[in-house]
């Protein structure tokens, strides 16, 4: 990707800080990284953490539109992965016209999965898409971790499992000790050696309130292996600034190719109007056709119709946000006869709660079922 030039860097805490100095002769370069295989103490356990260009994966292209962070399904008796349902759901979403799938996100209960299970979910999704003829559909894989080393390992796992891109949260467990430079270094270090391109995941609620400014994301976007961002912060002003600074791809123009994505369906239209690339939205697990139709209406210039649809989508998205993953799964179980439960310690819903979730999603599901 070509270099983009945004605004000067400012800290999340609004203090001016120097950029990472890659020209420092004592700093490891991308080809002489502490994360290269030669410097790993147990290289047999970590898949070739090298930045050599010949190890870069040829990822399927990202295109503007709707991406769905898929839920992970479990056998209700023993909580084992329900791989057939994971496969069936991926194909249902693809047939609805989405642009791509995201595995291992918050909706996918990545924090409840072992490393092996994470690989199984992505591998199952890729196999299902390919088997149904959606060989060109990209998969973005959540690869956030608390250490740089593990995040890189997850990027390699993602590639080996059929993933095309890594969606990476900033580490937050030791937040008090991580200044802005440490967080910038984290993303640079991961992007330097990840075999697949990286998208920045800005989700303050999931990382102890760490909220990157537009200046920070614009600066990180200049890294050649950082190709997009997901903004679940909901700040559409920030999204507008990033989209403009990066010349983001839109449904009507390829721009630089940088993907500036909203993180929720309730501001899909706002995202598109200010020059964003689309959304990665959990609500589309329930209503993928409605989410896709909204983008199509905007792309065709049918703004009044898009506004009306956005209102319904926003109400449905509030049901998904309010009920969380257990509400989303409950609604899917009610209306589509699959969904099940989250892994413990997530609670199982009562009959009364299931009825409440069904009612809150009814308007959205009625719309979904009316769409061809």
TrEMBL record:
Q: Which Pfam families match?
A: DHDPS (PF00701)
Q: Which source organism?
A: Ramalina farinacea
Q: What is this protein called?
A: Dihydrodipicolinate synthetase
Please give the PANTHER family that the UniProt record associates with this protein: 4-HYDROXY-2-OXOGLUTARATE ALDOLASE, MITOCHONDRIAL-RELATED (PTHR12128:SF52), DIHYDRODIPICOLINATE SYNTHASE (PTHR12128)
SUPFAM superfamilies reported for this sequence: Aldolase
Q: Where is this region: Disordered?
A: 1-34
Q: Where is the composition biased (Polar residues)?
A: 1-14, 21-34
Under the heading InterPro entries, the entry gives: Aldolase_TIM, DapA-like
| Molecular function as annotated in GO | 4-hydroxy-tetrahydrodipicolinate synthase activity
């Amino acid at each position: 990707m070509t270099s983009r030039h945004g605004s000067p860097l400012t800290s999340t805490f609004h203090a001016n800080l120097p950029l990472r100095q890659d020209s420092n002769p004592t700093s490891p370069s991308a080809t002489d990284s502490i994360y290269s295989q030669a410097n790993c103490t147990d290289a047999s356990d970590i898949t070739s953490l090298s930045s050599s260009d010949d190890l870069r994966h040829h990822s399927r292209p990202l295109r503007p539109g709707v991406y769905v962070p898929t839920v992970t399904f479990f056998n209700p008796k023993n909580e084992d992965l329900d791989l057939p349902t994971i496969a069936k759901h991926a194909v249902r979403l693809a047939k609805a016209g989405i642009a791509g799938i995201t595995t291992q996100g918050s909706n996918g209960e990545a924090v409840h999965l072992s490393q092996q299970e994470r690989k199984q979910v992505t591998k199952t999704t890729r196999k299902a898409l390919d088997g149904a003829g959606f060989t060109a559909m990209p998969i973005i894989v959540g690869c956030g971790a608390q250490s740089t080393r593990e995040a890189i390992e997850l990027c390699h796992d993602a590639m080996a499992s059929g993933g095309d891109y890594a969606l990476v949260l900033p580490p937050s467990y030791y937040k008090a000790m991580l200044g802005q430079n440490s967080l910038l270094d984290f993303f640079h270090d991961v992007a330097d050696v990840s075999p697949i391109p990286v998208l920045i995941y800005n989700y303050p609620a999931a990382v102890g309130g760490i909220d990157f400014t537009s200046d920070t994301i614009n600066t990180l976007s200049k890294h050649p292996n950082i190709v997009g961002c997901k903004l679940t912060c909901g700040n559409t002003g920030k999204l507008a600034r990033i989209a403009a600074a990066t010349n983001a791809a839109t449904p009507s123009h390829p721009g630089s190719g940088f993907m500036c994505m909203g993180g929720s369906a309730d501001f899909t239209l706002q995202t598109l109007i200010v020059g964003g690339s689309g959304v990665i939205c959990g609500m589309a697990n329930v209503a993928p056709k409605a989410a896709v139709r909204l983008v199509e209406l905007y792309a065709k210039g049918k703004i009044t119709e898009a506004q009306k649809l956005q209102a319904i989508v926003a109400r449905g998205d509030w049901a998904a946000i309010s009920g969380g993953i257990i509400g989303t799964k409950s609604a899917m179980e009610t209306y589509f006869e699959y969904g099940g439960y989250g892994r413990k310690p997530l609670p199982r819903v009562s009959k009364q709660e299931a009825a409440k979730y069904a009612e809150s999603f009814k308007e959205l599901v009625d719309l979904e079922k009316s769409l061809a």
